[in-house]
Write a structure and sequence with these properties.
This protein has 23 helices and 13 strands. The protein is of the alpha+beta class. The protein is elongated.
Length: 449
């Protein structure tokens, strides 16, 4: 992709235009990181770009952006140097005018994002002091910080995101402006806020991002429920680390570098219902949070729907919150119950959640280690293999579809999971002996203890 961008620059230069690599890719290149995409900035107008690269699409003609195909997959954005007009919606300029490289650098958000690179002369072109800030590891707004955040409020989230993923400090005036204007983030669409939030939370420096969001005041507008965890006391014998907020933050810091989005969200939200369910026993004063897992699952669903997460992220996060206390019971579960618990698709993330839940509190990993040992023990065969007999087999024996048939199938599967029944013949023989009267089966005998 870099090669393709350079070819485009060569062609534009040969046609007499100025053309440079711009923005994030220059920053990443100078940091020795892999860039996500290579953007080109040029003095050619969109029409002139399209004339040189027939078949290109003018996506944001209004913003002077042309998307040039780069091979079979991928594309390079070629944007005309521009200046942004006034901002009246707090997000996008009302108009843009084509301008010079200097002015194009000045309309960008942070100095480290305002660099150009001339790949033909192999030279960095810096109109905003970005190279020095890159070396110092400093995120600094270009121009007057407060004004730049005021005109486009999404930059408030971008400041936290870049500080997090680059591991940079935020320059004083820039940070003061983020804090002072944090309330204005509510005028940005939740989808855009969420996209930045996700980038922050998926990065290994997520705790730093979490702190910046909380300390700036942005969290108050994204996930105010997190702030309600502050000062929510817990029983010290289970939670020597402190209140629910401290516990949640500590867990975030203990996640592996690569953590799925449902896992990170379940860490943030697993105890979200503790403030609402907290009680104290009248005699001993012991603190309890009865039902915080069930209510927490409901709240997790509500919060994540509010943030417009897709269902395939919401569902596993809700399931993980709902079941996070079930791990306390694994050593008492009958084998079939444990196998069913472990075979659910979100189990790996749930186990990772449980691990940091323990490490972020009393440090006792006995249930976690028990599950690991069981996983090893069960590893020779599928946790939940295909059923020995199905509903059709029972219907042939005179059963009717219905709850009794479901209970019988469940009972047979339980015995199968525990190794008591190993073949279809054994299962059929068991049915004839234990449940000879069609449509009458009480599960009592095999019910879970
Ligand atoms: P990423 O690694 O996420 O792609 P990036 O720096 O390339 O980071 P983009 O959102 O792809 O960020 O934007 C490309 C460039 O456009 C930025 O480097 C910056 O110069 C400029 N830019 C993007 N969004 C804004 C904004 N909201 N305000 C000002 N400049 C912006
Ligand atoms: Mg980019």
């Amino acid at each position: 992709m870099r090669e393709k961008a350079i070819q485009i620059i060569e062609k534009l230069t040969a046609a007499g235009y100025t053309a440079l690599l711009a923005g994030g890719c220059v920053r990443d290149m100078l940091l020795g990181r892999e860039a996500k995409d290579f953007d080109v900035a040029t003095s050619a107008t969109p029409e002139q770009v399209v004339r040189l690269f027939p078949g290109s699409k003018t996506v944001g003609a209004h913003f002077g952006v042309v998307v040039v195909r780069a091979g079979d997959h991928g594309f390079v954005e070629v944007a005309t140097f521009r200046s942004d007009g006034s901002y009246s919606d707090g997000r996008r300029p009302d108009s843009v005018t084509f301008s010079t490289p200097e002015m194009d650098a000045e309309r960008r958000d942070f100095t480290v994002n305002g660099l150009f690179y001339d790949p033909l002369a192999k030279k960095v072109i810096d109109h905003v002091g970005g190279e020095k800030d890159l070396q110092m590891g400093l995120l600094r707004a270009i121009g007057v910080a407060a004004q730049r955040f005021e005109e486009d409020r999404l930059r408030l989230m971008r400041a936290v995101r870049f500080a997090t993923v680059l591991g940079f400090d935020i320059e004083h005036a820039t940070w003061e402006s983020v804090c002072g204007l944090a309330d204005k983030i509510s005028s940005v669409s939740i989808e855009r806020i969420r996209d930045e939030f996700v980038k922050i939370m998926l990065h290994e420096n997520r705790v730093r991002g979490f702190d910046l969001l909380v300390n700036s005041g942005l969290m108050q507008h994204i996930l105010p429920e997190i702030l309600a965890l502050q000062g929510c006391e817990q029983p010290p014998q289970f939670h020597p680390e402190g209140d629910v907020f401290i516990h949640t933050r500590l867990m975030l810091s203990l996640l592996p570098t690569e953590a799925s989005l449902p896992l990170v969200m379940s860490v943030l939200l697993h105890d979200i219902a503790k403030p609402a369910t907290q009680t104290r026993d009248t005699d001993t004063g012991r603190i309890r949070f009865n039902g915080h897992d069930k209510l927490g699952a409901e709240m997790t669903g509500e919060i994540m729907r509010r943030m417009k997460f897709p269902n395939d992220v919401i569902e596993p996060a809700v399931v993980a919150v709902e079941h996070h206390m079930t791990f306390m019971e694994v050593q008492r579960m009958r084998t079939a119950t444990l196998k069913r618990f472990m075979s659910r698709p979100s189990f790996d993330d749930e186990l990772a959640l449980h691990r940091v839940d323990c490490l972020g509190s009393n440090g006792k990993l006995d249930n976690y280690e028990f599950v690991l040992a069981k996983r090893e023990e069960f590893s020779k065969a599928p946790l939940v293999p295909p059923r020995l007999i199905n509903g059709g087999d029972l219907i042939k024996l005179g059963w009717h579809a219905g709850p009794a048939l479901g209970r019988l199938l469940n009972a047979i599967q339980t015995l199968q999971l525990e190794g008591a029944l190993t073949s279809k013949d054994e299962a059929l023989a068991w049915v004839k002996e234990k449940a000879p009267v069609a449509d009458e089966f009480e599960e009592a005998e095999t019910s879970e203890n």
